[in-house]
Amino acid sequence: MEDNQNMDDIEQNFLTQFSSMVTTDKDDLVKQFQSIGENLNYSTATFFLDMNNWNLQAAVGCYFDFMAFPRHPSMKFLNDLTVGKDEKVTPNTSFKQTWLLQNNGDISWPDGTYLQNETEEKKYVMPSLSPNDTTIITIDQISPVNVGPFITRWCLYASNGTQFGETITSNIDVCHSGTLAITQQMSQLQPMASSDIEIFDSLSATNQVCSIYNEGKAGLLFLFWVFTYRRAG
């Protein structure tokens, strides 16, 4: 209650101060607007002034109204990056899902934010993401033993358990001919295969150098034999 009263007093003081200022220069108006707070940048000042037709007193009042309004964190689901997405999965099988998320709000995600399934206790701790930034999260899933649709819903929660942002709905078909797990296993083997090829190429190059060295060594021995034979003759 006291904080709201202090905010009202500060706002009234600024409004009284700015009501006596008469200027039409936009740069001066921006500087005067920025004087009401240390963290006010040029873009913010321009936004509120332009929204109020460059009326300084109205812009200041609008800004304080905005700051007094409680703001909450937000999240937007951008894309499904799951390897083998849209493929079906076999029953009782482990697989992974990867999602691209964005903080589409105007405040950072609070410390301790976590992602959780509506029906499970396992939590995935999320970073304190700044506004407009994105993050990639990979979760572990196990398909049910019965065939049919496997639907799970995931939400972000603040450390106090308050839910925010969009709900992520996953819908995967479970059937005996599913290939999702195999696709993901094969994708993990590809980097290993590339590494094996590099090792093979390295060994081939080493063998080639050794072969050249041995051939050169044999040639030197032959020349030494010829030179020694001629001297003896």
TrEMBL record:
Domain named Nbr1 FW: residues: 82-174
GO MF term list: ubiquitin binding
Family annotation (InterPro entries): C6orf106_UBA-like (IPR039517), Ig-like_fold (IPR013783), Nbr1_FW (IPR032350), UBA-like_sf (IPR009060)
Pfam entry (one): UBA_4
Example of a GO cellular component annotation carried by this entry: phagophore assembly site
SUPFAM superfamilies xrefs: UBA-like
CDD domains recorded: NBR1_like, UBA_CF106
One of the GO biological process terms: macroautophagy
The name this protein goes by in its record: AAEL014760-PA
